[in-house]
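Incident log, structure service

09:12 report received: a user says their structure output differs between two submissions of the same chain.
09:20 pulled the input from the user's history:
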Amino acid sequence: MKHIFSVLLCAALLLLSMPTSAAVIIIDTESGETAAELMALKAPSALSEEVTVPTITTGSALEVGGKSAVLMDLSSGTVLYEKNAHEKLPIASVTKIMTLLLVMEAIDGEIISFDDPVTCSPVAASMGGSQIWLEPGEIMTVHELVKAAAVVSANDACAALAEHVAGSVEEFVQRMNTRAAELGMNDTHFLDCSGLNDEAYSCAYDVAVMSRELMKHSAIKQYTTIWMDTLRDGKSQLVNTNKLIRFYEGATGLKTGTTSAAGHNLAATAERNGFGLAAVILGCSTTDERFGGARKLLDYGFANYSLYTPQIAETELQPVPVLHGVQEQVNTVLDEPQPILVKKGQEKQIERRIEFAEDVEAPVEQGQVVGQVVFTLEGEELACYPIRTAEAVGRMNFGTSLLHLLVALCN
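09:34 re-ran on a clean worker, output below:
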């Protein structure tokens, strides 16, 4: 009965979200799939069939298709699995992750806003491949263009965003490469903002790095988690190519990419119980291979790893004596501990030690390091968090010494 109810509910939701007879259905045309396939209620076999997830404890190996793959923890950037991680390959529309990153950084930096109107230029309107068929002079907001880029991989929307952020597509592409270098993406070179040029290249590791950076901007999830939506007051219906959004628990994005030269590519992100992962698989021969491989990577990560959140009570932070200071001791505070990635089952084996300086000589600056909290597992350091002074303490001089003496005599 529960299964029948679920099917009926999905059917009702689909009918409600279907476009009117006047609406045009827009999909990522490079994926090779039809709108009917993307809108189907049934999950593809790659995402519905039972699979055996390898575990670290049994030593069983994880195997995925494609030419290269990486599984990365989003909180720390730790690589949990890799296959030809630095092989340079064309990545097609996965390129748009960097485009969206620069847009989100411009928004968060208050250089542009989601509400900005953007007038489509002839250059943006001339983009081929997947598009929302922008006309020269047509006006859309940044919000609408980001939606188009994230959901249906619209090349014209990306070009319009690039011009709005940087003034021209060429300048924007230069910024893409500059940002890639800043992030340590050493095996990447962009030639456009959309991924149409297969002479450009990246690698699975670099794609995971820029995926991690993009997902730090929480607002992007309102776009990368869309299955179906509309533009132009409902006249244009958008359908997402990323089937994980519909059929994988905790999916948060991110981007598909397909060309004949690049094959089928996918950067997939998901989060469960605050634990986020990025799975990248490049150079697959079929779309099922990329979705099945990404699912297997994510399943492996969630089955074998978890995040341990350090707990330190304020009462454990003791004052530190101050030598030659205007006060005898200084209070301490701790930087907020970040979660630690561990293998499942190891949480109770983690040990902790708190270390304070015996004393500190004045003058003392606020925020000065006077100790640390160290977390270890089987003798190996997992994380170290500095303990800092809560306030500044001045050095005792003749005037302050005399004042202290007078106060002491009066008491």
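09:41 both user submissions now match this output. Likely a transient worker issue. Closing.
09:42 reviewer note: The CA atoms of residues 245 and 251 lie 5 Å apart. Residues 287-304 form the longest helix (18 residues).
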